[in-house]
Sequence to fold (115 residues):
Amino acid sequence: MRMNRDMFFGLWAEQNLMSGGTGSRKMPFDLGKVGSLLKTAREEKGLSFEDITGALLIRKQVIDAIESGDWTVLPPVIYVKGYVTQYASFLDILDLIEPELPIREDSFSDKVRQS
Fold:
């Protein structure tokens, strides 16, 4: 049986919860603040969870976890950052959210430029 995206994230969330969630790991950005900004913008635009999940094809549980700042049920950070960026773009508030997201300093393009 081939594993689809929902199965992968479901297994990841289950393992993450069983291992104690985020533990002592430092999260790369304040999801509580970012999630609050996204939720406020969604509500101001009169959009429901179903509107967001239908437009972005992101599960309701993921949107809910992002809006509530709950890292424990979310997939790895790289996916969350992508979801947040996609969600903010859809709500037309990316300029408000981008300063809150980390910029990866050791990116591949930086290494290429240094060679």
